[in-house]
Design a protein that fits this description.
alpha+beta, 4-stranded antiparallel β-sheet, 4 helices, 15% strand
Length: 154
């Protein structure tokens, strides 16, 4: 008797979970427009040359933010099992601030042509050719985008 009641209860719970589970809702794609407001017909879709630049004020602001960062202590012995280890992150951030030459890196990056375009009122498109060892005879344009749609618009 107890077995039949338990079996009926389990079957009832399974049926309830199957029939009344929450449905995953997705946003309708529509026309695929990600820009703010209605689609503009006069959007500039031209590809323009671009040079990577930064100012001393931007670097000072970056270093100030680095100095103001609060790090959580990692779990003892966790290494990188639960995300980026904050002890190692402190070393990396210290290198970014003290050992890394931002200006030299800009010079290295600007040796290559970069291009930018506007896509649906966002400026996500920073392109540079992938160089192939032995010469750039077969060049592929590589788009660099953010991870989250709309991230580059904000």
């Amino acid at each position: 008797m107890l077995f039949e009641i338990l079996a009926a209860l389990i079957v009832g719970v399974l049926l309830y979970c199957y029939l009344f589970r929450a449905k995953d809702e997705t946003l309708p794609m529509g026309d695929g427009w990600w820009g703010a407001g209605p689609r503009r017909e006069d959007e500039d879709e031209e590809i323009h040359p671009f040079k990577i630049e930064t100012s001393e004020e931007e670097l000072k602001d970056l270093f100030r933010r680095i100095d103001d960062t609060r790090y959580a202590e990692p779990l003892e012995g966790s290494r990188f099992n639960y995300g980026f280890n904050s002890k190692h992150l402190r070393k990396v951030v210290s290198y970014w601030k003290e050992g890394f030459s931002w200006k030299k890196q800009l010079e290295v990056l600007n040796q290559f042509p970069h291009f930018k375009t506007k896509i649906e009122e966002c400026d996500p498109g920073i392109y540079h050719p992938l160089l192939i060892e032995g010469g750039a005879t077969n060049v592929t344009m590589q788009p660099l985008f953010g991870i989250v749609p709309g991230e580059m618009c904000n």
